[in-house]
Amino acid sequence: MSHPLLVKGARQLLTLRDTASSPAGPRRGAKLSDLGIIEDGAVLISKGTIQSVGPTRRLANLAQTRDVRVIDATGKVVMPGFIDSDCRLLPSNPPLWKKSSVAKKSLEVSRRKISQVTACGTLAMESQAGPMADYAGEFRQLQANRQLSLSNPNLISTYVPEKVYDAQLPKLLKKELFQFIEIPSTATEFNKEETRSWMEHAAGLGCLMKIRTSAMSSCRNLPVQQVCWEGDATVEEIDWAANQSWVLLGMPLESLRHDRSRKQWREMVDAGVALALATGANCGLGGAASMQLVVSLACAQMGLFIEEAITATTINAAHAMGIQEVTGSLEPGKRADLLILDVPDYREIPYHLGINLVSKVILHGEILFQQLEPQWLGA
After folding, report:
1. Which stretches of the chain are assigned E, i.e. beta strand?
2. What's the pTM value of the predicted model, to 2 decimals?
């Protein structure tokens, strides 16, 4: 059994913990900027779980009675790991999944991609399976997600069926092959009564729901956890969305491609819409799956402040994925999933575009990755 771990001396410890000014639930409006900063902060970890957070002096005294390992984070930023709530890790080419040998090779490629994004700070992520005309191919992808989750328990499997009226749904849920199901946008535009009935049935089976749509009005009265919005919204729709319990997913990379209005994102945040940020990457096609890039682009292209972008990629993203009780912030009782960033101030993060700022990754209380100093020739 590993000894407790103390991360101490952080110039800025971003806890994102709930306070009286930022109560439980996804952050909205001005509360998006509450990072719960502790200067000269420390985190005490035991058995993969956060035991305590606070000033270094207090936690160092607390740790003196234990045989602890120590990580010195002096001059650095410590924060929760990023959470990517919209990502496809598995190749979506249907012919690949008809041959088990090719599918196995694709699984190894996906494992390498997980290692790469983890080294860049993404400690929990979605992995989509489907849609395919061939149900057997969808089933193989769901099984592949199960295999991936054995080595990375922070992976959330999302089933994107070709048809929302899938008779196999109860069997798949019983096998625990996915946690989320995504409703295709075409299903929300047509046969709405059938779609709503089917979604209520799936929710009754314990499935979390995700919808991808270009019309916010299609989300009315649907039991959804998160909404991937792909269109423009009226002032009335924004005001309506601000009063919904679900989390809206914004994808800065998509905003670049579709030239979505910077002004509209700002209006949504100011109106009180619960916002999370994701990559929207399709790793099978070589998509950019860097959450550090998402933070930078959110500030540059969406008009978000850095505090809002950090909240939207951590605790609000956890709410979007339904895992806010176990991760997304640094609080006693939660999983010890955190990053040590090689910057002295979190406000510098957006300015290092293309550079991996992660010095160390701690996942479930263990050091999973750390940057090495270059060994210069002749030094």
Report:
1. 5-14, 37-46, 49-55, 69-72, 77-80, 82-84, 87-88, 122-129, 155-159, 180-183, 208-213, 226-229, 247-250, 275-277, 281-282, 338-341, 358-363, 366-370
2. 0.92
